[in-house]
Amino acid sequence: MATEAIISDVGTIYKRLFHHRPVIQNEVHLFVREFEVKRGNSDLQCLQSCVSMVSEMEAVFLEDIASMRPHFKSIHSLAAEVTELGNEILGKEKEDTGVSPSEQERLNREVEEYRLEQERETAECEARAKSERQRLGLEIRETRDSRLRLRTVSVGSSAGLSLSLNGSPSDSVEGEGRKGEDEEE
Question: Which of 57, 112, 178, 183 is the most exposed place for a label (fewest CB within 10 A)?
């Protein structure tokens, strides 16, 4: 009895490990369903259209290729001649320019030096422009301040107020002038 149970267990294990027919049948069924049912034979139609296109091409193009075959050698020889002439022209042009590698390096250095000089000059111009903007801003502020002082003096003199010895209006008039300037801005 024990041997029968062992043989039965070994048979079951063997079936589970090595007998994959149900799994394979399910996979085949899913594969067939995917390509036939879901896609509605669209792959088959695409393949059929490709086959018909290839057969048409064979019928048309094979005749054309056969008729062109004698001309291929002449076309090939003409292409070789044109390539040779083009290479000769390029060689002559290279000789005419006469730029050797050392001269090319020298020209490259000159271009690089010129570029660096332009960058330096640009930086200098920007620095001068910045300082000029600062100077003009300061000059504008000074002009505004002097106009404010003149308004204050004219307001103070028109009101009949006296100026102090240094030429500036009294504190109360100066404060009023500043209020007026704040309102104008």
Answer: 183
Cα distances (Å, whole numbers) of residue 114 to 107, 121, 124, 147:
10, 10, 15, 48
- Decide: 169 and 161 in contact? Cβ < 8 Å: yes
Q: Which residue has the tokens 């896609």?
A: 39
The token duo for 178 is 């500043």
Q: Please tell me the distance from the alpha carbon of residue 94 to that of residue 34, in angstroms, as a whole number.
A: 65
The alpha-carbon radius of gyration of the chain (Å, integer) is: 49
| Alpha carbon distances (Å) from 57 to 15, 28, 69, 134, 164 | 53, 36, 17, 79, 110
Q: For residue 180, how many other CB atoms are within 10 A of its CB?
A: 14
Measured CA angle at 58 (ends 52, 63), to 5 deg? 145
d(CA 106, CA 117): 16
- The tens digit of pLDDT for each residue in 61-113 reads 888 888 888 888 888 899 999 999 999 988 887 776 766 778 888 889 999 99
Quick: pLDDT tens for 35-53.
776 776 777 788 899 999 9
Q: 169: exposed, middle or buried (C-beta count within 10 Å: 0-12, 13-18, 19+)?
A: buried
